[in-house]
Write a structure and sequence with these properties.
Elements (H helix, E strand, L loop, with lengths): L7 H13 L16 E5 L10 H10 L2 E4 L9 H16 L6 E6 L1 H12 L4 E7 L13 H15 L16 H5 L9 E7 L16 E5 L10 H17 L2 H4 L2
Parallel strand pairs: 1-2, 1-3, 3-4, 4-5, 5-6
Helix pairs in contact: 3-4
């Protein structure tokens, strides 16, 4: 969290170069998927384009990756969560068995929201560098809070309730359930870095989930070879726990 923010972008390029040279990117040494569905959700100020490489990799591994439909993740999280619920409903008509949902940063909280509210459709949540502790806003870089506040007037659109968007006073469905205990049958893996300059790694630890620490910066998590190896292992284990009748196509 306290690392220099300016190193985040060079770190992304470094992580990408390491990923492209790593056998895991070619699917070597990892369990292959069997067509199981995986929904990808981008982080704040990003869109589906930020997860293109991960989506292609998952497809090559044998999973069936789906995008969220988010061009830029800048809207009120509750509004975005509602749209994701519609997207989830659409995907359940296209695929057999529950989905795994992978979200980066804010996308991880949105993924957790889906897991909390739709336990029949979602079997596992993977959060990448997500601030999972609702009571620790100081563990997110001040520039993120500033950007979030700047967008608030655009979200209000005549609705004064939006002045509480993103604050502890917010009473929307997202705020109430994104941090709630996950239902039985829905598991969570948090993958985070202690070198993260955006979200404090400690704030990404879920006491009731699986927590995996990797090296590298926040933005680079979506192209981090350690993350890819952890994701491949996690998906193989979690989908194996789902009954074969509902997990395979």
């Amino acid at each position: 969290m306290r690392g220099p923010l300016m190193t985040s972008y060079p770190d992304y390029l470094t992580q990408l170069a390491r990923l492209l040279a790593d056998p895991v990117y070619r699917g070597q040494g990892v369990v292959q998927g069997k067509g199981q569905p995986v929904l990808l959700i981008p982080g704040f100020l990003a869109g589906d384009w930020s997860l293109l490489r991960m989506a292609g990799w998952l497809n090559r591994l044998g999973y069936r990756s789906y995008f969220s439909g988010i061009d830029w993740n800048v809207d009120c999280p509750n509004t975005t969560a509602t749209k994701l619920a519609w997207r989830l409903e659409q995907l359940t008509t296209e695929s057999v068995g529950p989905l795994a949902v992978i979200g980066h940063s804010l996308g991880g909280l949105l993924a957790r929201f889906l897991g909390t509210n739709f336990p029949v459709q979602v079997c596992h949540v993977i959060a990448l560098g997500s601030p999972l502790e609702v009571s620790t806003p100081e563990h997110v870089h001040p520039m993120v809070h500033a950007a979030f506040r700047l967008l608030t007037p655009l979200r209000q659109r005549g609705n004064p309730a939006f002045r509480w968007c993103g604050s502890p006073s917010c009473t929307c469905r997202f705020a109430k359930t994104a941090f709630a205990r996950l239902p039985s049958g829905v598991t969570l893996t948090s993958i985070f870095s202690k070198q993260d300059a955006i979200v404090d790694g400690q704030a990404s630890v879920d006491p009731e989930g699986e927590n995996i620490a990797v090296s590298g910066g926040h933005f680079g998590l979506v192209v981090n070879r350690e993350v890819y190896r952890a994701v491949a292992s996690t998906l193989a284990i979690r989908f194996a726990e789902v009954s074969p009748a509902s997990a395979s196509l």
